[in-house]
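Q: Predict the assembly, please.
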Amino acid sequence: MRRATRFTYQAFLSHWRGILVIGVGFGVLVVQQATQFTSLFGSGATNNADAVAGMQSLARTFAVAIPPPRRVDTVAGFVDWRLLGASTIYLAIYALITGAAALRGEEETGLVDSWLGTGLGRSTLVIGRILAFGLALAAAAALAALISIAGTQAAGLPLPPGPLAITLFMLVLPALFYFALSMLVTQVLPSRRGATGLVAALAGSTFVLANLSYVVAGLSVIRWVSPFFYFDQGHALAEGTEPQPAYAGALLLATALVTIAAAAVFRWRDVGAPLIRSRDRHHEQAGHFPFYPRRLLTATIWELRWTIVGWTSGIVLLAALDTASIKPVTEGFGTSTALKTYLARLGGGESQLALGFLSFAVFVLGATLVATAAINVVARFAADQQERRVEALLAQPLRPLDVQLARIAALLVAAVVPTGAMFVAVVFTAKWFGIDLHAAHLRGATLMVLPLALAVGVAGVAMLPRFTRLAVWVLSAALGLSVVVVLVGAMSAWGVPDWATRLTLLRAYGRPAVQGIDTSGLAVLLVLLGAGLVAIAVQARSEMTAG
Amino acid sequence: MAEIPVAAIQTRGLTRDFGAGRGLFDLDLEVRPGEAYGYLGPNGAGKSTTLRLLMGLIRPTSGSATIFGVDVTRDPVRVKAMVGYLPGELAQFGDMRGGQVLSLLAGLRGGVSAADIRTLAKRLGLDLSRHYREYSRGNKQKLAVVAALMAKPRVLILDEPTSGLDPLVQQEFYRLIAEAREAGATVFMSSHVFAEVEHTCSRVGIIRDGRLIRDGDLQEIHSMRVHRVTISFEGDLDADALNRIQGVSQARVHGSLLTCHVQGDFDPLLRAISGLRVTNLVSQEPSLEEVFLAYYADESAVEPVAASEPEPETAPEPVTEPVPATEPPPESGADTAPPTDAESETAPGHQAPDPGDPEAHHLARSAFRLRDWLGSELESGPQRLGEGEKEGQGPELVEPGRTDPSAPAPGPAEDQPPDQ
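A: Predicted assembly structure:
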C-alpha cells in the first residue's frame, strides 16, 4: 500500500506543469471573460436583449462547437457559455495525449520496467497513474477556482463562488475519462500514434455529438455516449440551473470501468508490446529496406510529415469555419450595439466589421497557430538532440551547420504548407459563400504569416545547440505573452499601453487583412529572422549535444 | 625519400574542461595505423569524452587531435568520412524500423552497399524489419555496431561496443573487428572490461579522472588480472597450503567447495589440485571498474608508489582477515610462510576494508596491486613503453607490504616460474 501511495504521489508530481498551466490559465480566463461581460452588457435593457439575441444567433451558427447558451445575460451564464462549455474538448485532447504517453510512452523509455521492478503491481500501476492524473486535474481545478473566485470577487463581479468551483471540478471529468480511455486504447492497438489519433477522433466526434444533439432531435437518443454531455447536464453555473450529481457519478463510473479494463489489459499483455501486434514485414528478406529518405534535408522534412499534416488540417478547418461564419456573425451581431463594439475591437473598426472578424478569427489566429506549429517543430528538433538522433547523424560526414540548414528548410516547409493551405481554404470558402475579399490584403495577410513563423522558428533553431531544453519554453512564453497582450487584451479592452504591445510578436504581424502590410512590423520580423540566421551561422561549428 | 608514417590517431594536449575537475586533460596519445587500442577506465573517467572529441562532436578547450593527419576540429567532415563510430549512449529512433535507420545513415555517409548492411545484420542476428522501439538493448547495440562497420571505415572508434551483447554475439563482434583489422582498419575502443580489450586490442591506455595514467602493451594488463575461482571437488584440500601457492590467495575450503583468488597464471593452482576429481570450476574476473571503485573508495588512499611500502611497526589498523600482504619474491615464493596478522596490515593511509567482507577485501587488495602498477604515473603522468622499461616486459610491480623496496619485484605473470 505504501508503495502504491508513493507511486501515485510521484505520478501526481509529474503533472505539475499541467496543474500550473490549467489552473492559472482557467483562473485568468474566467476573470477575463467575466470582465468582458461588463463591457458587452449592462448599458440598458434593450441593448442587453439585443446582445442576447446576437449570441443566440452566434450559438446557432456554432452549434457544432459550443453547447447552447443559458442565461448569457448574466456573468455566470456568459462565462459558462463563452469559456467553459467549449474548453472541455481542449482539456480532453490534452488528457488523451498525456494518457498515451503515460504508459506506452514510458514503456519505451524503460520507466515502466523500473517501476514494476520495485514490486509494484501492474494493476496498481495503471490505477495509480489514472488516480494521479485525476488528482492533478482536481488540483488544477482547485487552483483555477481559487484564482477565478479571488479575481471576480476583487472586481466585484457577481459570479457565484460555489457553483463556479463545482463547475470547474466537473469540467475536468471528461478529460479524466479520455485519459483512462487513451491508456486503454494505446495498449491495444499496434501503433501508439494511431491509437492516440483514434481516441482524439472519438473525443472530437462525441463533443460534436453532445453539442448537435440540442439542435438535431434524432441525436438526443445516443448522446448519452458522450462524456461531454454529462458535464453539460451535470454542472450548474448559470442562474436557474441545478447541479445534477448523478451525471458526474455516471461519468466517474464510466471512467472507473475503463480504468479496470486498462488494468486488465496491462495484466494480460507483455510489457513493451501492444495487445494486438502488427505483422512484421520482412522487407530485408526480399532485398529491400523499408522506405526512408536517404538525404538529410528530405529526411528532416519527412520526419515532420505528420506534424505538418496535423497542423495544416487544424488550420484549414479553422480558416474554413471562420470564413463561413463571417456573414452569420456580423449579421447576427448587427442589431446589438455592444456586440458591434466588440466586433469593432477585433481590428476592422465600426465600418469593416466583417473584415475585422476575418482578420482576427482567420489571419491573426492562423498566424498564431502557424507560429505555434513552428515552436512545435523546434520542440521536435530539441527531442532529436536530447534523444541523441542528431549525434547519430553527426557521426556521419556532416557538419552541424548542415543539420541546422536542413532544420531551417524543414521549418520553411512546415510554415509554408499550412499558410498556403489556409489561404486556399479562405479563398474557396469565401467564394462558396459569396463573400468578397480584398485580394491584395488577403495575400498580404497570408504572406506576413511566414516571416512571423520563421522568425519564431529560426530563433528556436539558433537556440537549440546551446539551450536545447530552454528554447521551447522561451518561444512559448514569448508567443503566449503576445497572445495575451494583443488578442485577449484587445477583446477585453484592457487598455494595454502601446509600448507593451509593440514588444510583442503579434503586434509586428499587425492587421494586414484590414490595413495591408505594416512595413515597420515586417521590418521587425525580418530583423529577428536575420538575427537568428546570423546566430546560426556564427555557431556553425557549435556542439549539438543532448543538452 | 621514405614517406613519413602518419599516425592514425594523434592527440596533443587534448583537453576538454567541463569544470569542477570533470573532463579530459592534456591527453597525449598516438595510435598507429592498423593498431587496435583499448582505452580503459572506470565510469566517468573521460573515455566517452575522448571519443566524442575525436569525432568532433564536442570541441576541445585546448589541444588538438588528428585522424590520419586531419584535424578533427578544423575538418570534422573529412574525419568522419574515414571513421565508423559507435556511441556509448545509443540514439532513440522510436518508430523507425532498423532498416530505415541504417538506410538513412548509409545514405548520409554514401558508398555503403545494402548487401554489406544485410550481411552484417545477418551475422549479428539483427532483424532489420522491426521497429527500433521494439528492439531489446542488445539489438539496439547490434544496430549501432552495423552502423559503425557498414562503411568499412579506415578507423573504428567504438565506445564500449559489446555493452548489452550476449556472449555469442560478442564473439561474432570480435571476429568482425579482427576482419576489419586484417583489412587494415585502426581500432580505438573504450571499455571498462579487461576481457573485451583483451579480445581485441594490442595496446592499452588507462584513464582516470580525465588523465591518461598508463599507455602500454596489452601484456602488462595480464599481470593485473585477478580471478575469483570457485571449485567443487571430491577429496581433501588444505586451504593454508593453497594460500602458499604463487598467485593464489584467499583460499578457503568449505566441505567440497574451494574458493580462492588467482592472480596471473592458473597453472600452479591446477597442478595443486590435479589429484582431485573436480566436478565444477567457475572463474570470475572483477571488472576494472570494481577495481577502480575499491581503489578510489577513499580518495585519501591515493598516493604514489611509496604508499605501498608499509611500515609494519607503525601500521595503524590490523586487518582480521589474513591477507598475504608480503608476497614472496619469485625465487622464494613456495617457501614463504603464511602471512601473519602483522604482515597483513594495511599500508599507512590506506583504509582497511571491511573485515567481514572478503570480497571487498579482495578488491581492495587487487586495487592495491593496480595502484602499485599505476603508482608512478599518478603524479608524473603517462608512461610509455621504452620510457624506463623494456619492450614486451611489464612495469615493476611493488607488492604491498614489501619491506625492502630494492628487492626484486615480481614481473608480469608470464615471467613467473610456472610452479612454485
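Chain A has two domains: 2-276, 296-538. The CA atoms of residues 384 and 390 of chain A lie 6 Å apart.
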